[in-house]
């Protein structure tokens, strides 16, 4: 009888030990942080990271991510910004936070002194010395872009997960996808033989140097290219240029000579930059001055696009960055005005600012000489 009792006691002890071991394993995989969890994921640079979620303190060296966090309602977790966020995204109201400067001049000591949970930056800048200096201090570096069309939705979903804002991310993506589907369906009705050839250029380089820097629509790997260039494809146009973009390079343009552009002679020129127009610009005067300078002082005047006044200037943010899904609708309307005459893209831009960012809509984002 004592043997039976001993065996029974041993069995109970083994059973309880197994149960405790199982509970410890679950606790390890889901570390508590204010009732949160530990999340392991892969960023857009292909690097695996592990952080406690929801994230409480973030340094953001990517202005597109700064805007994404405002969309999600997680901007209160940002403790510092950089990458011209204050200059180019003044409506985000991060002006009371430290500005760490452009990605080429990040103050590592300042970041460490702020003791953030994570630092968000681009996939291609700064270089990996950022990780080498911050990760030994216990600060995770997460590389996301939030402007390349093939990655934006997944990146916003990941941010939603990291900040416990998954529902908000899903609702925004649903709204955004509706506009993208509207454009895609309308563009699918345009026969290939009627599609216009388009060349996307840097307005700054053309205006100041009289030279040509192209935003390619495709990468060297065959993927969607730079936003300003790929918008041509989304809007139903054909890229007049055949240059490709190396996504590992910090520059998003490719320099070509004047002869190349004159030979290609596109139906339409689209010109892009962040310094012209934007949220705090109230009229078209700057656009008109730049347009007239380009026509009067560069070889653009020799192009078919100039003779037909099919030259359109866009602020980078609405067509080459995180608002591309709205700007591409305007580009489609510029290319095919009759087919898109019922579409009012800037009504959607107003909704974006006022509903999703929670700020007043204003600014000048687009210019056409046909409007003069």
From TrEMBL:
Name by which UniProt lists this protein: ABC transporter substrate-binding protein
Protein family according to the UniProt entry: Belongs to the bacterial solute-binding protein 8 family.
Secretion signal, residue range per the UniProt entry: 1-21
Keywords: Signal
Lineage: superkingdom: Bacteria
PROSITE patterns given in the database record: FE_B12_PBP, PROKAR_LIPOPROTEIN
A Pfam family it matches: Peripla_BP_2
Domain called Fe/B12 periplasmic-binding: residue spans: 57-343
Gene3D superfamilies reported for this sequence: Nitrogenase molybdenum iron protein domain (3.40.50.1980)
């Amino acid at each position: 009888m004592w043997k039976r009792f001993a065996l029974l006691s041993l069995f109970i002890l083994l059973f309880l030990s197994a149960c405790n071991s199982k509970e410890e394993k679950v606790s390890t995989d889901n570390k508590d942080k204010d009732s949160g969890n530990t999340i392991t994921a892969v960023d857009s640079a292909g690097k695996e990271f592990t952080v406690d979620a929801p994230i409480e303190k973030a340094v953001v060296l990517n202005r597109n991510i700064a805007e994404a966090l405002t969309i999600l309602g997680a901007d209160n977790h940002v403790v510092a910004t950089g990458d011209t966020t204050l200059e180019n995204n003044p409506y985000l109201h991060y002006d009371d936070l430290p500005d760490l400067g452009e990605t080429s001049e990040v103050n590592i000591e300042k970041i460490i002194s702020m003791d953030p949970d994570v630092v968000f930056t681009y996939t291609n800048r700064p270089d990996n010395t950022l990780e080498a200096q911050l990760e030994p201090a216990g600060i995770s570096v997460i590389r996301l872009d939030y402007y390349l069309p093939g990655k934006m939705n997944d990146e916003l979903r990941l941010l939603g997960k990291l900040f416990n804002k998954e529902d908000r991310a899903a609702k925004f993506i649903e709204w955004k996808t509706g506009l993208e589907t509207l454009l895609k369906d309308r563009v699918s009705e345009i026969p290939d033989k009627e599609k216009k050839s388009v060349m996307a250029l840097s307005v700054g380089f053309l205006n100041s140097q009289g030279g040509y820097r192209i935003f390619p629509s495709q990468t060297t790997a065959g993927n969607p290219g730079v936003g300003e260039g790929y918008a041509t494809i989304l809007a139903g146009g054909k890229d007049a240029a055949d240059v490709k973009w190396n996504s590992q390079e910090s520059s998003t343009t490719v320099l070509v000579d004047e002869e190349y552009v004159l030979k290609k002679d596109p139906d339409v020129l689209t010109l892009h930059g962040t310094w012209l127009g934007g949220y705090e610009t109230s009229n078209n005067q700057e656009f008109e001055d730049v347009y007239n300078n380009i026509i009067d002082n560069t070889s653009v005047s020799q192009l078919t696009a100039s003779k037909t006044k099919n030259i359109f200037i866009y602020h980078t943010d609405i067509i080459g960055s995180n608002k591309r899904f709205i700007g591409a609708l305007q580009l489609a309307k510029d290319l095919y005005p009759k087919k898109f005459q019922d579409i009012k893209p800037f009504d959607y831009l107003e909704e974006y600012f006022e509903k999703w960012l929670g700020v007043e809509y204003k600014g000048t984002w687009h210019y056409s000489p046909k409007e003069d």
